[in-house]
Amino acid sequence: MRGHGNLLGLYVPGRSVLHRAPLWLKVFMSLALSAVVLAARVPELTAVGLVAASLGLTLGARTPAAQLFRTVLPLLPVLGVLAVYHVIANGLLPAFVTTGNILTCVLAARTVTLTTPGQELLDGVVFVARPVRVVGGDPERFGLALSILLRSIPYLAGSLLDVRDAARARGLERSVRASVVPVVINAVAYAHRTGEALAARGLGEDDRPEDPGA
Amino acid sequence: MHPTRKTVIGPTGTSSWRTRKRWTSTDLSLIAVFAALIAALAILPGIPIGSLGVPITLQTLGVILAGLALGPTRGFAAVGLYLVAGLAGLPVFSGFRSGFGVLAGPSAGYLVAFPFAALLAGFFAVLVLRRASRFRWIGLFLAGLAASLLTVHPLGIAGLVVNGGLDVPAAVLADMVFLPGDIVKNLLAAGIALSVHRAFPRLLAPARSPATVADS
Question: What was the ipTM of the complex prediction?
Answer without folding.
Answer: 0.80
